[in-house]
Write a structure and sequence with these properties.
heterodimer; A: mainly beta; 7-stranded mixed sheet; 4-stranded antiparallel sheet; 11 strands; 0% helix; 56% strand; globular; B: 111 residues; 5-stranded antiparallel sheet
Chain lengths: 114, 111
């Protein structure tokens, strides 16, 4: 199994809603990432978990809250988002706990904030 | 000057053409160089990964790194319509540092 699976594929939410994005990998990878990608832009790093511990937070607003329940799962909890947060949210994993640039990406969750 | 510069495109070529995609960078600490391919509405997929200066070939794809000129290239031979996608160069200075992407170039291969 060489996949990173993200759910849901599409999500529409209001600014007062609370929702979560989920990511799962069964490759035994020890680092997992959240990226945000706006249209026609490259992915922007949000968070990195290494060995289930948060190792990098790229100064992301607190309305985004990551969680890593175990080595296979990564969640992104969303609360009180703004319309400008509408984007493709990508989860990725890498085999070791160290980022060498070899990332496996999921297909993404396309978020629309109304 | 941005750390990584990539021709913005878009680029349209006929099927069978040789495609050359390029990135330049300013940070001499970058050691690992990647090309990711991203199809529309999909996540990026690692296409090529190189460490040192020189060429690396994989089927119709060749990645070239010239550290002295701070220049990387991806060549696609005998391009196919299925190669139509956005290509992102990416680089990193060392393990645990941040991956830096180019802006990406959208390639369209016309049948």
């Amino acid at each position: 199994d060489t996949e990173v699976t993200q759910t849901p594929k599409h999500l529409v939410m209001g600014m007062t809603n609370k929702k979560s994005l989920k990511c799962e990998q069964h490759m035994g990878h020890r680092a997992m990432y959240w990226y945000k990608q706006k249209a026609k832009k490259p992915p922007e790093l949000m968070f990195v978990y290494s060995y289930e511990k948060l190792s990098i937070n790229e100064s992301v607003p607190s309305r985004f809250s990551p969680e890593c329940p175990n080595s296979s799962l990564l969640n992104l909890h969303l609360h009180a988002l703004q319309p400008e947060d509408s984007a493709l949210y990508l989860c990725a994993s890498s085999s070791s706990g160290r980022n060498t640039g070899e990332l496996f990406f999921g297909e993404g969750s396309r978020l629309t904030v109304l | 000057q941005k750390e990584v510069e990539q021709d913005p495109g878009p680029l349209s070529v006929p099927e069978g053409a040789i495609v050359s995609l390029n990135c330049t960078y300013s940070n001499s600490a970058f050691q690992y160089f990647m090309w990711y391919r991203q199809y529309s509405r999909k996540g990026p997929e690692l296409l090529m990964y190189t460490y040192s200066s020189g060429n690396k070939e994989d089927g119709r794809f060749t990645a070239q790194v010239d550290k002295s000129s701070k220049y990387i290239s991806l060549f696609i031979r005998d391009s196919q319509p299925s190669d139509s996608a956005t290509y992102l160069c990416a680089m990193i200075s060392g393990a645990n540092s941040k991956l830096t992407f180019g802006k990406g170039i959208t390639l369209s291969v016309r049948p």
